[in-house]
């Protein structure tokens, strides 16, 4: 039986006098023609319109209604342009509403509905105002192509939006440009608000990850008053803006090489009122001319920001150092019998400097071993192993860049989200300080 859920598209109704409405309803229901997803409507002239499934009712059923079900009744068809959902329909999920609307619409155009087509419908999506961004794994069947562009109008109507886009895989061009096709609408510009910060961007040209909200909130809660920050992978301002708007950074140098993201970034700095405290550096951050300037460096690139580590070391203040926020996708393999960090010969080979530098002892006598005990119980061993390896490499780079030993300390390992099965997006907060000169 065809059904539609919600106020999606116009439906056809059988109209008759009120005294015959119940007889009509019983007959239509027995013939599986009654649309139970929409309410019967009382017309201005007193007649009752009973919504039915499909785009018409076969003449044989109309004759049956007039001549046998309710002799002498008036029986006619009309279209309800704005059908009222039944109480049952109002309880449907958006995915169910979409399925029912599209299946009904497709059947009305002669498409044989199948489980394969239903499985090809989206179950989730990103909503940006009146634009819906569909995932790449939906509407892949060849049958859909013959139904465009009206198909997209039906989908948009069912989900209550005016524009549709569908994303593909992220382009491996170094700028993480999304492959997004605009299906319905004239442009892809949208606005999204996170934690009071406005982000405007073109979904067909720039990435936006809802999964990073926890890290954006954490960054916003940091106390960065008076600090100069370098954001090596600024994008449209995902972290640049929280550092400026909420964390109180004095100034941010934002690096980005995607020209479309730079346009959005400059615009977002303006609309959030912080453009006077930020300089945008367009181009490859590996060629950045800045040095000896940063109290804090953000390296918000996944799967790895390692190519930016030398630049991060270069821009840290030589006199006082600072903090690095290093993003990474770390693989985890549950069930494996992993050795504790630092216990293997491989780990030992990563410590090329003298004990006071490689173990990073502080005034309180803390070492890596003692810091390991202070980490959250939720910290996975793989995260800790990666963090300690990164700490060692950063210490090496700092000595190479500045020509003197530095001490480093793991302050925090933060989980952002699960990126894929057994792959976690984490952030390492690493404190880096120059060692005092010894006379």
Automatic annotation (TrEMBL):
Say if the entry is tagged with keyword Protein transport.
no
| Enzyme Commission number(s) | 2.5.1.114
Q: Mind telling me which SUPFAM superfamilies this protein's record contains?
A: S-adenosyl-L-methionine-dependent methyltransferases
List the keywords (alphabetical): S-adenosyl-L-methionine, Transferase, tRNA processing
Pathway noted in the entry: tRNA modification; wybutosine-tRNA(Phe) biosynthesis
Q: Where is this region: Disordered?
A: 332-381
Superkingdom field: Eukaryota
Please name the top-level EC class of this enzyme.
Answer: transferase
Question: Where would I find the SAM-dependent methyltransferase TRM5/TYW2-type domain in this sequence?
Answer: 125-434
The record's catalysed reaction(s) read:
4-demethylwyosine(37) in tRNA(Phe) + S-adenosyl-L-methionine = 4-demethyl-7-[(3S)-3-amino-3-carboxypropyl]wyosine(37) in tRNA(Phe) + S-methyl-5'-thioadenosine + H(+)
What does this protein do, in the record's words? S-adenosyl-L-methionine-dependent transferase that acts as a component of the wybutosine biosynthesis pathway. Wybutosine is a hyper modified guanosine with a tricyclic base found at the 3'-position adjacent to the anticodon of eukaryotic phenylalanine tRNA.
Q: What is this protein called?
A: tRNA wybutosine-synthesizing protein 2 homolog
Name the gene for this chain.
Answer: TRMT12
């Amino acid at each position: 039986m065809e059904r539609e859920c919600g106020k999606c598209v116009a439906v056809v109704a059988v109209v008759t006098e009120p005294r015959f409405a119940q007889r009509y309803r019983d007959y239509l229901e027995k013939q599986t023609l009654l649309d139970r997803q929409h309410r019967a409507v009382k017309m201005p002239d007193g007649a009752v319109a009973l919504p039915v499934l499909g785009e018409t009712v076969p003449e044989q059923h109309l004759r049956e209604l007039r001549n046998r079900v309710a002799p002498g009744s008036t029986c006619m068809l009309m279209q309800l342009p704005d059908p009222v959902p039944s109480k049952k329909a109002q309880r449907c999920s958006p995915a169910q509403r979409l399925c029912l609307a599209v299946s009904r619409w497709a059947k009305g155009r002669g498409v044989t509905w199948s489980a394969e087509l239903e499985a090809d419908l989206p179950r989730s999506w990103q909503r940006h105002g009146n634009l819906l961004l569909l995932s790449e794994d939906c509407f892949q069947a060849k049958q859909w192509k013959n139904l465009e562009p009206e198909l997209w109008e039906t989908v948009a109507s069912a989900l209550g939006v005016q524009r549709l886009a569908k994303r593909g895989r992220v382009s491996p061009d170094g700028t993480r440009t999304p492959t997004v096709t605009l299906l319905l609408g004239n442009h892809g510009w949208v606005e999204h608000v996170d934690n009071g910060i406005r982000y405007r961007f073109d979904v067909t040209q720039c990435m936006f990850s809802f999964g990073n909200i926890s890290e954006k909130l954490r960054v916003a809660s940091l106390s960065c008053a008076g600090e100069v920050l370098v954001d090596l992978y600024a994008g449209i301002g995902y972290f640049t803006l929280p550092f400026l708007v909420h964390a109180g950074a004095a100034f941010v140098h934002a690096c980005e090489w995607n020209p479309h993201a730079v346009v959005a970034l400059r615009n977002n700095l303006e609309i959030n009122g912080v453009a006077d405290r930020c300089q945008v550096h367009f181009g490859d951050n590996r060629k950045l001319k800045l040095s000896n300037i940063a109290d804090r460096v953000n390296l918000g690139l996944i799967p790895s920001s390692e190519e930016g580590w030398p630049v991060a070391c270069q821009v840290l203040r030589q006199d006082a150092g600072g903090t690095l926020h290093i993003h990474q996708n770390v693989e985890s393999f549950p069930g494996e019998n992993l050795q504790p960090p630092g216990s293997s010969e491989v780990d030992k080979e990563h410590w090329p400097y003298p004990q006071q530098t490689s173990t990073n002892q502080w005034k309180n006598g803390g070492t890596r071993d003692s810091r390991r005990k202070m980490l959250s119980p939720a910290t996975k061993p793989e995260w800790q192993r990666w963090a300690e390896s990164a700490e060692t490499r950063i210490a090496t780079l700092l000595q190479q860049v500045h020509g003197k030993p530095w001490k480093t300390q793991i302050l925090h390992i933060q989980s952002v989200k699960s990126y894929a099965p057994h792959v976690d997006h984490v952030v390492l907060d690493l404190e880096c300080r120059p060692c005092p000169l010894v006379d």
